[in-house]
Amino acid sequence: EPEVTQTPSHQVTQMGQEVILRCVPISNHLYFYWYRQILGQKVEFLVSFYNNEISEKSEIFDDQFSVERPDGSNFTLKIRSTKLEDSAMYFCASNGPFFYEQYFGPGTRLTVT
Amino acid sequence: AQSVTQLDSHVSVSEGTPVLLRCNYSSSYSPSLFWYVQHPNKGLQLLLKYTSAATLVKGINGFEAEFKKSETSFHLTKPSAHMSDAAEYFCVAPSGTYKYIFGTGTRLKVLA
Questions:
Q1: Cα–Cα distance list, B101 to A52, A61, B5, B43 (Å)
Q2: A23, A5 in Cβ contact below 8 A?
Q3: Do A48 and B104 touch (CB under 8 A)?
Q4: N or C: which terminal CB in chain A sees fewer CB atoms within 10 Å?
Q5: Is B77 exposed, middle or buried (0-12, 13-18, 19+ CB in 10 A)?
Q6: How far does the CA of residue A81 sit from the closest CA of chain B (Å)?
Q7: Residue from the list B44, B99, B105 with its beta carbon closest to the beta carbon of A45
C-alpha cells in the first residue's frame, strides 16, 4: 500500500541553524501539508500546498519557515534559523482520493539544542 | 468554522472492558470527522472516518464510532480493550478546504 515517507526520522540541530525536513507524498496526490506536534501537546496545522504554491498557512508559519516541491516527488519544509521552541515532531501529509482524507507520514522529530 | 473537543485527556480501562473516548464537534453543517491513533513514538494512523454515508462507522482493530447530529458527537468505542490499544487518540475535522483541526487528544491506558 502506498505511504507517505519522511526523512530523517530524528534531526538534532543547534539553535540558529537551518534545517530541511523532507517528505515524499503518495505519488498521485495533489495537496500536501505540514503539521507539528510539540511534546505533550496537540497536533497543529502549519501549511498546505497545492499547485506549487501555499494554499493556507497558520500564524505559526512565519518568515522563518518555507516549503517547496523541488521535483515531482519531494515536499520539503525549511526552517531558516531554528529556535528552541521549534523542537517538535513534524508530520507531512497528503490528500487521498477522497478530498478530506489525509495520509500522514511517520514524522520527523526535530530537537533544537 | 469547525472545531472538535475531546472531553477526556486520559482514560483508563481494564483489559477486556469497553472503551469510550468522547468527541464533540462544532459545525453549522454535517461535517466529515475522523479518528486517528498515535502509538508511542509512531506516526498518525487513520482509525475510521465519517463522511455522511452512514452514521455508524466501523474502523480498524474493532473500533467504531457513531455520528449523532442531535448531540454533535462522534464518540469512539470498542467492546473489549486490548493491551495493544494503549495509545493517544485524536478526533479530527477538516476546517475549510486545506487543513485538519485536531482535538487535544485522549491518552488511553489499558490495565492488565
A1: 23, 16, 10, 17
A2: yes
A3: no
A4: N
A5: middle
A6: 25
A7: B99
Class of residue A88 by CB neighbours under 10 A (exposed 0-12, middle 13-18, buried 19+) = buried
* Minimum-distance CB partner of B98 among A31, A42, A43: A31
Query: What number of C-beta contacts closer than 8 Å exist between A and B?
Result: 51
CB contact under 8 A, B102 and A33: no
pLDDT per residue rounded down to tens, chain A (113 residues): 778 999 999 999 999 999 999 999 998 888 999 999 998 888 999 999 988 899 999 999 999 999 999 887 899 999 999 999 999 999 999 986 566 788 899 999 999 99
Is the Cβ pair A101, B46 closer than 8 Å? yes
Question: What is the sign, positive or negative, of the torsion defined by CA atoms of A74, A60, A90, A79?
Answer: positive
Grid coordinates representing A6 are 519522511
Chain B contact for A61, CB < 8 A?
A: no
Q: Estimate to the nearest angstrom the gap between the alpha carbon of A13 and the chain centroid.
A: 17
Cell numbers representing residue A79 in the block: 526552517
